[in-house]
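Lab notes, practical 5.
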Amino acid sequence: MVMESGSIEYQLTDHDQLCFIHIPKTAGTTFTAILDAKFNQAEICPAAVWSELTQLSPEELAHYKLLRGHFYYYVYKFLPQKPVYITMLRDPIERVISGYEFMRRHRPSRPEGLPTHEKALTMSLKEYVCDPSVPGITNAQTRHLSMNLYKELSDDLNHPKWLESAKENLEEFAFVGVTERFDNAMALLAYVFGWNPLLEYQNLMVAPKRLRQESLSADVIEAIAERNQLDIALYQFAKEKFNVQYDQMLQNLSEQFNYPASDQLEPQQIYTLLEKHYEYRHAILERSPVPQFLFDFNQALLGRGWHLREGLERNHVFRWTGPGTLSTLDLPQLEPQDTTIQFRIINTVASDILESLELQVNGCKISFFPLHSDVITTVFQGEIPASCLVSELPFTRLTFKVDRTTSLHSVDPTNLDTRPVGLAFDLIQLYPVNSPETTSAVSFLFDNPAWQERSLSSNSI
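Output from the prediction step:
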């Protein structure tokens, strides 16, 4: 739902389906991870490519709130109504170069991709680009956004109708980002949908070394450009659209929060304004405070300083904190009463990181103690005074802080995970102190002999 006439802001409703058209090699993997965090896991369509999507029934597809994958614009034909479209576009020359290098580095999991992989391994970039049997070279971005013309124009991938259709369709999109300005694009995304801004995120699928456009000969660049004239024009169109919306966002934020007009806002200033805008968008939803709340990491995550969901294949979902030392989680407003908080940590990179953990609730420092600890799991419990739940924030903000993060690889060279991580959380529960009707999320531990022995020892001190 567009918030008002002429606005670039959009408030997703329960009836909306958000659809990310992921064009290959446009930083879509990182973008997808950011999107996924905004939705409950059960609301995310598992299909990642067109062939998987078309295997799902209309009834199944109607269930999902987020669809993201290598889809085409006419995905709407499979849905109850047109979705809210978003996409990312990239400089066409860079996109083709990146696709070639990706195909050289990665053996495809699907057999239909193996011939292209073999060609990338044995051909020069120019040979690869000029081979008509290699898919995804000629105007691929334009075609993703106008594939409804495929039957009519499949023999002419340079026909101007492709571009006309793609531009027309792109005007419907709630958000269009450009890869070359990814940080700015994520700021605009947060503004459009009223999501919390991100200071840091995990870059995924980034090549450690890659060919640079400036290092290639003119004939190679010309060969790519010749096959991507429509994409070059579409990219220019998208850049202009993005620049206009980004500038409009900065102007709106400055006016809304009475920020001094400036020729150029610094990234930290933009983040501060977006944080205020996020609070404002949250507040106008006018949600009533709740007496208690149980959060597991299957749920949508509002906050920053968390890595991807993990454990989906084992049906035990968790997230690592990181890459920085501060992680926030914005939960519904709680009723102002003395409240118990319990949280479960299922792994840590190093014991000193766990020992350094601090917790704040709406800026109040909260003491906590280990309710249970074994080789794998530590459950902590603390008490939040009612006064800490009286806040101008339209949510309850939990802030977890550790002294440092490091990689699993640094403590175990056989582990290839080089992400800076701290603690792995899988559960957080808040409920009124001495609430007889509330069942603790860790009540199963109370029957554990090791816990009972620890509890008796603690009580005897």
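Observations recorded by the TA: The CA atoms of residues 94 and 407 lie 31 Å apart. The radius of gyration is 25 Å.
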